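To: structure subgroup
Subject: Chain for Friday's discussion

All,

I'm putting the inputs and outputs inline so they're searchable in the archive.
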Amino acid sequence: DGVLVVDEDDRVSLMNPMAQKMLAVGTVDARGRPLREVTANADLLRLLAGKDRQAEIPLAGGRTPRACARR
């Protein structure tokens, strides 16, 4: 599973290798960077900015996993 953790300022605290692969961010060190600088996935950014707790996030390659957000 891909795991992505952002802080209250939407800066990346943790992104495991599977999340990097799923979001096509390569091996860049995302820690401390604003999530918007790390990925342009509008569906993921909308999920984290909104009140929804779950959403399907379309990814490159045609995969659409279900994502959960907790604040």
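Points worth raising on Friday:
The chain has a mean pLDDT of 88.
The radius of gyration is 11 Å.

D.
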